[in-house]
Amino acid sequence: MFKKISDFLIKNDSFLLSSHLNADGDAIGSLLAVGTILKKLKKKHWMVLHDNPVNPKFKFLKDFEKIISFDETRNIPFEVAVFLDTADSDRLGTVKSLIEKRKVSILNIDHHVSNLRYGTINLVDSKASSTCEIICNIIEETGIVTIDKALAYHIYTGITYDTFRFAFSNTTVNSMRICTDMVKKGVDCHEVSKHVYFEKTLHSMKILGEALKSLELHCGGRVGFISLEKSVLTEEDNFQIDLDNLVNYTTAVEGVEVGIFLRRAKEGGIKVSLRSKDSIDVNRIARIFNGGGHSKAAGCRMSESFDEAKRLLLKEVKKAFR
Ligand SMILES: [Mn+2]
To answer: How many beta carbons lie within 10 A of that of residue 198, not counting itself?
Structure first.
């Protein structure tokens, strides 16, 4: 499979690269990593994301400024597409329209167990911590390029982001070994942490405070629940707070097995994040509401009121406990 992927990168000449909307550390890290591989192979490529702007937290990564927002794309004469960290092609947002009008081969590289295998070639490894880990495996197995400092930063950032700095159960010997190797290649761990975690605005910290104030327990303390019903979040807050990680404060409480976090979605309705600390498979719960993800981290969108969404979710979690 790795050989098939390196052949795909070597034999084609111009590529569209993209990842999911609200691109995070692994999405941007893997996008830039594949962009760097293609740069080394002297292949034409365009890195395009739905987001405008793209999360500026990651601008310390080399070639970040070469990522273009969909709104800024004119005619891109690409022949094939590579989609990274994207379980469902709908998650590409507006970028999906670039492939809808034409028949192009798609390389789909991802680690979400819910991946729909929409590609012509699909490399889905749900045992990998992150898409960046898979990219590193491809490079190491095929020797397609050598990993320089810039590429090491891309890979390290994606792995540490998705493992929550080696705290989640997707942390493995391989993910840690790769990060060690990336540090040997020149990655400064503190520099990455500083840009990604330690430069928050005051407003975003106040919102974090508000979220923590809403924390409550259900099901005899086995479920932690947080909601940001009243807050109006700015675009900057979305980048600052790591909204997707706020849910982790629920499972940080002793005895909590499942965490739920509700917030207003930019596009309307409610965005739901789910976490599981132990055996409950939250991917199955998210799927009931047309969402998905991993067994320990998943999400979905709901159009109900906050109260109704909460009631429906708690009902399903209770069923899962039985
Ligand atoms: Mn990922």
So the answer is: 8
Residues facing 107 on adjacent strands? 82, 121
Distance 264 CA to ligand 1 centre (A): 22
Q: How far does residue 220's CA lie from ligand 1's centre (Å)?
A: 32
25 CA distance to ligand 1 middle (Å): 8
Distance 210 CA to ligand 1 centre (A): 27
CB 117, CB 92: distance < 8 Å: no
Ligand 1 centroid – CA 27 distance (Å): 6
- Distance CA(71)–CA(33), nearest Å, equals 23
Rounded to whole angstroms, the Cα distance separating 295 from 72 reads 36
Distance of alpha carbon 86 from alpha carbon 5, whole angstroms? 17
Cα(29) to ligand 1 centroid in Å equals 9
For ligand 1, the distance from its centroid to the CA atom of residue 26, given in whole angstroms, is 5
Beta-carbon contacts of residue 18 (< 8 Å; ≥ 6 apart): 31, 47, 48, 49, 50, 81, 82, 83, 84, 86, 92, 95
Q: What is the pLDDT of residues 156-172, one digit of tens each?
A: 999 999 999 999 889 99
199-245 pLDDT tens trace: 888 888 888 899 999 999 999 999 999 999 877 677 777 777 766 67
Q: In a 10 Å sphere around its CB, with 0-12 CB exposed, 13-18 middle and 19+ buried, how is residue 181 labelled?
A: middle
